[in-house]
Amino acid sequence: MESGKRGLLTLLPLLLSFLFYFDFSKKLPSSDCSLLPHNHYWIASKHVVTPNGTISGAVEIKQGRIISIVAEENWHVNSWFTTVVNYGEAVIMPGFIDVHAHLDDPGRTEWEGFPSGTKAAAAGGVTTLIDMPLNSAPSTVSEEALKLKVQAAEGRVYVDVGFWGGLVPENAENVTSLERLLDAGVLGLKSFMVPSGINDFPMTTSAHIKEALPTLARYRRPLLVHAEVLLDHDGKLEPEDGADNARSYSTYLKTRPASMEEAAINQLITLTKETRAGGSAEGAHLHIVHLSDARTSLNLIKEAKQRGDSITVETCPHYLAFAAEDIPDGDTRFKCAPPIRDAANKEKLWDALLEGDIDMLSSDHSPAVPEMKLLDEGDFLKAWGGISSLQFVLPATWTYGRKYGITFEQLASWWSEKPAKLAGLTTKGAIAIGNQADIVVWEPDVEFDLDNGYPVHIKHPSISAYMGSRLAGKVLATFVRGNLVYKEGNHASLACALPILHR
């Protein structure tokens, strides 16, 4: 009898462990959606980046949410009774939120597409993308076009994807059309002050933007602006000394001088004064995308902020990583708009980012089929512009930022916290209790070569300006809403992330 009791006591921990693992009232995540099929687990590390600083400790996740964060000295978990994944010295931080990506789906999936783009995002530690309204077909400038976009995303995204709508002359001048687009769930709007290169996404003037601001104010959603305007020339410059001149990056650079950004931002800050308290557009917010001019343009934005205007600005890793002087002749992988400027300007961008004058970072992932980059011709004037970078923004920011002493907390601010605020994602952007468990785990000291042997998930690796680089910062794991969607080169079998609509 006594031996029977002892046997039962021996089995009791195993029985309790079984009951803990199998909460019969709640279905476990499908193993097809997550590489860690548990609905309740802990992840631990010596470096957990929280809004209150980096701690050594653990994060408890249940049903896709963060339910507790515990410092190491206060953490007493019995691994018999729950799953613990200990990442040692690796960094656990909020997943990156990329507010500026072109996934080209539907309509131009040969350029990228939701499956390949979101796989690349997951492999790079990006847990949420906000998709731009152009380069897909049709452009997202109406309620009907947004519905097509959402349908294309459902069941095909490995990270969460929200959507910006497009502000174009047609809906800027039609309040009802604009309201229908906002009511359908776009997180905000995007406009171009120069020709976009896409026929169904025409440019807007400052008059169109002024017309739309009161509507955006009522909806409390931002307007993102590509801030360049054409000056005396038409944005093109013919070669001066024969066809080979078009292979020089300096030739392209002359076609888009910093004065184009300056002139656009000058126009915009005549409007942003209305976003101040008591203004006619109080509640509206302007956000300048992919700033490349760190001189006069940036000073205009700083002055507007000091006056109380509701305005923010982003730049991109390629403006922080590369300099015009170093771009080889004919290497059209580096063509983008606004262009990459000189090394002195790059240093000023870093200064502005570190001092808080630039608010956040984005990828401006803008792919195309390789033929459009004219890699063989190397013609900077005719090649399609755009930097393909989505999978590399974490290691690129870290690699080029280390010499400036950037911190994990700064990365979290630039890539998670502030992007979440811009997009209105109130339960994302920080490792905080109650937030969705959107998390990246990465190793800052591990270096790797972006060569043909490296697993790249963007559709056309050959067009990326980062290929051939040596970077530091290897992503080990990416969690989206608690699902482990990426782990050391492998993705979950199914795309179970969600489209995000403003409700």
TrEMBL record:
Signal peptide residue numbers: 1-25
EC number: 3.5.2.5
Provenance organism: Nicotiana tabacum (Common tobacco)
InterPro entries on file: Allantoinase, ALN_composite, Amidohydro-rel, DHOase/Allantoinase_Hydrolase, Metal-dep_hydrolase_composite, Metal_Hydrolase
All residue ranges annotated as the Allantoinase composite domain in the record: 36-90
Keywords: Hydrolase, Metal-binding, Signal, Zinc
Subunit (UniProt): Homotetramer.
Pathway, per record: Nitrogen metabolism; (S)-allantoin degradation; allantoate from (S)-allantoin: step 1/1
Reactions the enzyme catalyzes: (S)-allantoin + H2O = allantoate + H(+)
GO BP annotations, alphabetical order: allantoin catabolic process; purine nucleobase catabolic process
Listed name of the protein: allantoinase
Family membership: Belongs to the metallo-dependent hydrolases superfamily. Allantoinase family.
Role summary: Catalyzes the conversion of allantoin (5-ureidohydantoin) to allantoate by hydrolytic cleavage of the five-member hydantoin ring. Catalyzes the first step of the ureide allantoin degradation followed by the sequential activity of AAH, UGLYAH and UAH which allows a complete purine breakdown without the intermediate generation of urea.
Alphabetized GO MF terms: allantoinase activity; cobalt ion binding; zinc ion binding
